[in-house]
Amino acid sequence: MTETSSPQTGPRTGSFRIKLEPRLEEPPRWYPLVVSLAAILVALFFGGILIAFAGGDPFRSYAHIARASFGNIGVLSDTLVKATPILMTSLACSIAFRMKLWNIGAEGQFIMGAFGASAVVLAPIVPADTSPWIFIPVMIVAGMLMGALWGWIPGILKARFNVNEIISTLMLNYISISWINFWIFGVWSEGGFQMSPRFPDNAWLPRLLDYADSIPILRGLTTHAGLLLGIAAAFVLWLLIYRSRWGYEIRLIGDNPNAARYAGINISRNTILVMMVSGALAGLGGMSEITGVVHRLQTSPIAAGYGFTGIIVAWLSKLHPGVIIVVSVLFGALILAGREIQPSGVPKMIQGIILVCLIASDFLLRYRIRIVRAGSEE
Amino acid sequence: MATSNQSTLPPVVTMSGIVKRFPGVLANDHVDFDLRRGEIHALLGENGAGKSTLMNVLAGLYRPDAGIIQINGKTVNFSSPRDAINAGIGMVHQHFMLVPSQTVTENVLLGLDDPRFLMRLNEYDGKIAKLGEQFGLHVDPRAKVWQLSVGEQQRVELLKMLYRGVQVLIMDEPTAVLAPTEIDDLFKTLRSMTEQGKSIIFISHKLNEVTAIADRISVLRRGKATATGVSAKGVTTQDLARLMVGREVVFRIEKQPSKPGDVVLDVKDVYAENDKGLPALRGLSLNVRAGEIVGVAGVAGNGQRELSQVISGLRKCTRGEVHLAGDTVSNRPTLYGIQHGMAYVPEDRTHVGSSPNLSVTDNVIMKKYRQPPISRGGLLDMTEATRFAKVLKEAYDIIVPTVETPVRLLSGGNLQRVILAREISGEPTFMVAVQPTRGLDVGAIEGVHRLLLAQREAGSAVLLISEELEELLSLSDRIFVIYEGKIMGEIQLSVDRESDKVVETIGLMMTGTPLEKIGKGA
User: Fold this and answer.
1) CATH code matching the domain that covers A57-341, chosen among 3.30.70, 1.10.3470, 1.20.120, 3.10.450
2) Which residues of chain A does B385 touch, with a Cβ-Cβ cutoff of 8 Å?
3) Cis link prior to B373 (omega < 30° from 0)?
4) CB B310 within 8 A of CB B514
5) Which of A330, B36, B107, B225 gives 20 to 30 Å between its CA and that of A274?
């Protein structure tokens, strides 16, 4: 492809002109990464101004954030604990978004996953003294099934009746909260408190501190096996999207549904299936959170907005499962350390600024900016 | 406001030497055009002849690369449609630009500075109703646009222009979307507008309409004017058909005499609807034998798209059947045809035929990813897929740095080669190709033609749906002519391939005269 002068021309600035040209060739591989990092730096710069306005010292605040999230093995472990549910919900969002299904309901699917896992203990589906080798797999299956159910509903509504999945998944979030409230306020309430009884130990996901007896350095570290589940899920998802027939269909539908139809792909069926897988991944997140951290069914720590953070992380990672792992950890750190500086407010704003800068930086991937002397070239 | 033809006055619009280039296409090549006060001037031409481009230049949407536009004798230079409207020129596009959820009045007022702040719409309702009455454009100002029929929506578009005080109206294929009775109403309206001093440019490719409504006619072909402002009374439809479709065969392609085998594709009395639920195919029948190329000629929008979709399974037919080698393929999933040896080169390369952000590899395996060796279990063997893509890249001269490149970065000709490579590599028994050379440069066109002929030599049946008559004449063994969803006639092309008579006959059939009637006339 040769030189094509673009019709878009920027504002005249003196004798120079800023010219925007659509990129006709793929930028080199390192380019997107550099642009993203630059965008984050720009975001931190603006965030610094914000902190300064709020009366803080930007440098000290950032240093504090870094220390409070990665400073020692203890806080690093806490960061990973926070990152785990985000990892799963963003994986859930990423597969749906890949097909341009706007699943805003990872939150609800997460909650239902937690409910499914809880039901195994509380219904009870298996007796309380079952070996963890059976208990945990059953809870994983139950959590994923409930999440999948919560994805299937908007999926089938979309496929059969063309119901907008943004609305249906959003609404199902509220239903899921009411649903678990129903159980913990009534049936499973512990002595009138709005929470269920604590799960028996064998229904807990193993944590690092469980092994502190033999390896002392792990003492007090709460990172649990959910992280491994999440990383495994990310790998499976990568394999699914980039290396499987079904993933190929998903990518094709996402990029061009007309071409997919032309290639003989059944879009309705894939809509339902992808929503179910998306729901199942979020449900796995709910299961991991409740069996790894909370250990009882309770509304506030489960309905904490991980599903919504997952949307952001999935986008920032360009839906790539590998990148999602990294970005989830960064967001885990931001959440954890953000609370150190201020319970709410500035840290959330910084998250927002990072998001806006990263989205804006996408522009640089699609256009190149050239400064030309006015009149010298046309 | 002028009230009658006054030949002493300069024409309302004079365009001289208009040149407009798009990458790879010369859309207007030194075109002259003029419009007199109070006349309806028809602009005739096939799709892609440059009619819309020329009028978009006049309406301020495009800037010409060369040439002069004069309005009432004064040279103008439009940089936006707003400039054109201020100079009294307004265009009603084929696709309406209305806000469905707003009322007629709101739509008419949209974008104007008046009313400035308070929306006392009642007053405006009255104004617009009165304007409508003046020109015979009956539509309720308070109705929401989505409640209106297509004909009424068109009236709203006209009202928008009239309300802005436009003197010259450009109508881009206004009858394409209308029912026959609505067409009559439109013609009455247009007449009443010219009586009141407006001038109208009427873009069309339907000869009968043009001769019915126009005072003068200009014809474009391949960006050049083949007739400028001839009186509608002095020309016959035959002349116009010839001016429109031309007759010189550009590419002479050596080909073997056809050795047709068994009927592979049999379309039997098929009826189908278009996207809007209107009849698009009405009892269409045709067939293609092994080892021949059968052309479907016709002006765009006469059901070609729907025909290809019914054959490929992308559209349901309401009546009739399509058989592929004796097996019913109509109203079955698209996958059925794909698995039974059907290849399909769709009209729309970028929106249907390929997936722009996926790589060349991903695009060429679109119909092969289900079978080994590319599919292994549920997984894709990417090494095998890449190898396959590289083989096609070499065999079909696809010019691309690597097969990982997303196809949106490919030129039109290269993208078409990717699509053809994919379709042909499936060794189809039947292929339907729609407009396979549209928008390609000469070299690329030749390449596509060679590939289609190679298919024919290999004993495959090819249905070539095209609006390029020259292409059809040089490639086809037989030609069916489609008009409003029906076949007007079939022409065998072995003997008199290039005779004027054939071109003229096809031209007449393309504009709605069945073959039987032509024979009697001549």
Assistant:
1) 1.10.3470
2) none
3) yes
4) no
5) A330
Pairing assessment for the beta strands B89-92 and B13-22 based on DSSP bridges: unpaired
B-chain CB neighbours of A251 within 8 Å are: 355, 358, 362
Please state the φ and ψ torsions of residue B264, each to the nearest 5 degrees: -100, -50
Residue B513's SS3 state is coil
| Interatomic CA distance for residues B415 and B306, integer angstroms | 23
pLDDT at B50: 85
Q: Which two tokens stand for residue A242?
A: 């980039």
Encoding tokens for residue B15? 């365009």
Per the DSSP assignment, residues forming a β-bridge with B380 are: B375
Lay out the sheet containing A16-22: strands in order across: A9-13, A16-22, A367-373
d(CA A150, CA A157): 12
Position B12 pLDDT exceeds 80: yes
β-pairing, B327-328 vs B319-324, is antiparallel
Residue A370: what pLDDT?
A: 73
Instruction: Locate the domains of chain A by residue range.
Output: 57-341
Chain B positions contacting chain A at CB under 8 Å are 23, 312-314, 333-339, 344, 346, 348, 351-358, 362, 365-367, 369-370, 375, 378-380, 382, 405-406, 409, 411
Nearest C-alpha neighbor of B318 from the set B281, B344, B265: B281
In this predicted model, what pLDDT tens digit does every residue of A30-48 receive, in sequence order?
888 888 889 989 999 998 9
- The tokens of B357 are what? 């952000």
Stretch among A243-252, B405-414, B429-438 having the lowest mean pLDDT: B405-414
Nearest by CB: A248 against B333, B351, B369: B369
To the question of pTM greater than 0.80 for the whole model, the response is: no
Mean pLDDT of B55-73: 90
B287, B461 contact by CB (below 8 A)? no
Query: Which chain B residues contact residue A239 at CB under 8 A?
Result: 379
pLDDT band at B445 (very low <50, low <70, confident <90, very high): confident
Q: In what order do the strands lie in the sheet with B263-273?
A: B279-289, B263-273, B319-324, B327-328
User: Which comes out higher in pLDDT, residue B291 or B183?
Assistant: B291
Question: What residues contact B393, with CB distance under 8 A and at least 6 apart?
Answer: B360, B400, B403
SS3 of B411-467: CHHHHHHHHHHHHHHCCCCEEEEECCCCCCCHHHHHHHHHHHHHHHHCCCEEEEECC
